[in-house]
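Known limitations

Files may contain more than one protein. Parsers should not assume a single record per file. Below, a two-record file is shown to illustrate correct handling: read the sequence, read the token line, then continue until end of file.
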Amino acid sequence: MRHLIPVFALLIGQAAIAGDERIMFKTVDVEAPIDTVWDAWTTEEGLTFISSRSNVELRSGGPYEWFLDLEPDSNGRRGGEGSRVLAWVPLRMLAFSWTFPPDVPELRDAGETTQVVVFFDEVNAGKVRVRLFKHGWQDGEAWRRGWDYFDRAWSIVLERLKAELEARE
């Protein structure tokens, strides 16, 4: 199965480039070494750029949870509880499921998820292009609200990643 991961990732990328409206795409260039950018996405210490607390185990099916500094929802959740690592290629690609925020309670409470695939492309020594694809969208008003929420949220995540890592250099 692991040999299929790069093929899966390539297909996601091609669909987004072809204009499939069901795949969200975000990108940012970060002036930092590839291992620093990779660690920022794959370790609890690294994820402090966006979340003061997280639970990440880089293994198939392992947790990939960020806990945001928000009031807990009606079920006591504060972020990405239940999100899981789907696949990874070290220093190249990370894929994980992602839950919905309290802003979209009908999807969050139903346990609906989308999938996020993040590619790490070393442009040169010290510069990394991060490409994020989010797919698995369905039809309906709640899904549209989810899209709108994440369209803003993933932009903020990438902006914070860039600001935090470049401030360190």
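...continuing to the second record:
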Amino acid sequence: MIEKKLSTEKIYDGVVVKLRKDKIVLENGVETYREIISHGGGACILAVKDGKILLEKQFRYAYGEEIYEIPAGKRDLGEDFYLTAKRELEEETGLIPLNLKKITEIYPTPGYTDEVIAIFYADEFEQGEVHFDETEFLTFEWVEQEKVFKMIENGDIKDGKTLVALLWYKSGLKI
């Protein structure tokens, strides 16, 4: 199954996302359109220490609420996912991972975006310095694993990348 692009029209060229409308032809010859949000991707880190998991709480405007997430951030243009993960963990929590390992990459919303999020794991750290972006306001805390998994059961954790990382960890899969 393949779809072939016939033309593309740039709709919006923003700082975080770009929107385009592609005219395509389907395998059966039918022509239609796909609206695609381009995003540079990001990385997130499942940080575990002494039986606790590091969770952040941050207001997310699109949902109008504070949500729980593992530390994460947007990849700079051309930046390696590993460097994004390392940079974001220190910026948001002051932790420098000593054994950062990649778990997987996910496509969070394949129906309309090309975004890729790399998920990492670390359980050894040294202390660095927190330095939030000027538009970033969040809190973080180490939460007992049992409480974190209860939060999942209760529907308190809704973020997809966080759920993938936590359920990978709970499953006992190895890197």
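Parsers that stop after the first record will miss the second one. For reference, the second record is described as follows. The two ends are 32 Å apart (CA to CA).
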